[in-house]
């Protein structure tokens, strides 16, 4: 599944899991725009993603991890990979 499509699905899943209506995002987004995101018609900027996640009380990385990882095992593997990549990049930058 493409990450973009997964982001739309993850956004809708988290919103519903939090018991939020699309109208609950009115301070940061119109209902029409949120609906467009959830139907994969538009893609949010990073700043907009952060605003949406603030309403849902989750970190933006959590939403992205759900989009890329899918299920719990996939998310665990993704988090492990990200941790390893960050360590490698930090180690590489320390030696430069």
From TrEMBL:
GO molecular function: DNA binding
InterPro entries in the record: Cro/C1-type_HTH (IPR001387), Lambda_DNA-bd_dom_sf (IPR010982)
Chain segments annotated as coiled-coil in the UniProt record: none
Superkingdom field: Bacteria
Domain HTH cro/C1-type: 11-63
Residues spanning the membrane: none
CDD domains on file: HTH_XRE
Protein name in UniProt: Helix-turn-helix domain-containing protein
């Amino acid at each position: 599944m493409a990450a973009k499509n997964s982001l739309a699905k993850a956004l809708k899943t988290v919103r519903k899991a939090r018991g939020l209506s699309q109208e609950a995002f009115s301070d940061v987004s119109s209902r029409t725009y949120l609906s467009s995101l959830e139907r994969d018609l538009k893609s949010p900027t990073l700043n907009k993603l952060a605003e949406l996640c603030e309403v849902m009380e989750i970190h933006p990385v959590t939403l992205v991890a759900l989009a890329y990882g899918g299920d719990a095992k996939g998310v665990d593997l993704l988090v492990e990979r990200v941790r390893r990549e960050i360590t490698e990049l930090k180690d590489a930058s320390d030696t430069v």
